[in-house]
Amino acid sequence: AHGDVCAARSWEAAYERELRSFRDGGDAGEIWFGEESIVRLIRWMEKHQIPRDSPVLDIGTGNGVLLVELAKSGYTNLTGIDYSPSAIQLSEQVKEKEGMSNIKFQVEDFLAPSAELSGFEVCIDKGTFDAVSLNPEDAVGKRKQYVRSLRSTLKSGGFFLITSCNWTKEELLSEFREGFEILEELPTPKFCFGGRIGNSVTALVFQRK
């Protein structure tokens, strides 16, 4: 089995808890996968001189912290989507507190994306593909739909940065072989959140053909 990321219902509950604790104490909550993965993604974008005004999409934005950090690093065209209204509410509050006006958050199911969700230069996924692929109902079909959505969202030549807890490099290469080629693997620590020993994090950069 590929780990046990929580089902959708418990994600929603987790965001509701974070929303409450953010309101009570101003804490943006636990950052999924830890801060080092955010730093890793931003460093890659800076190293590859991705223009600061490139349209960037955060798939399953959660509490929006990744986009806030990108905005602090000077990126100006940022969109975060999440199917959880509580997550989007939370990220709006985090954005407001940080005074970041150049981030757009919207409730959106990536498996049934709206037509306007297209033309992105960079798409980032930290754990969303993991959650999709563990859905008990038709996980294989949902993974295929995810890849289709990604192809329609990311423009040709654009970059897809995925951080996964559940899939090895080889498995991800197989999942995304239609329409994408791997550019590089990013170095990652060997442990995942929740203290599951031996469950390594995989971070890959793909380019849309």
From TrEMBL:
CDD domains: AdoMet_MTases (cd02440). Keywords: Cytoplasm, Methyltransferase, Nucleus, S-adenosyl-L-methionine, Transferase. InterPro entries: Efm4/METTL10, Methyltranfer_dom, SAM-dependent_MTases_sf. SUPFAM superfamilies: S-adenosyl-L-methionine-dependent methyltransferases. GO terms for cellular component: cytoplasm. GO terms for biological process: methylation. The keyword Lyase does not apply. It catalyses: L-lysyl-[protein] + 3 S-adenosyl-L-methionine = N(6),N(6),N(6)-trimethyl-L-lysyl-[protein] + 3 S-adenosyl-L-homocysteine + 3 H(+). GO terms for molecular function: protein-lysine N-methyltransferase activity. Residues 53-184 form the Methyltransferase domain. Pfam families: Methyltransf_31 (PF13847). This is EFMT2 methyltransferase.
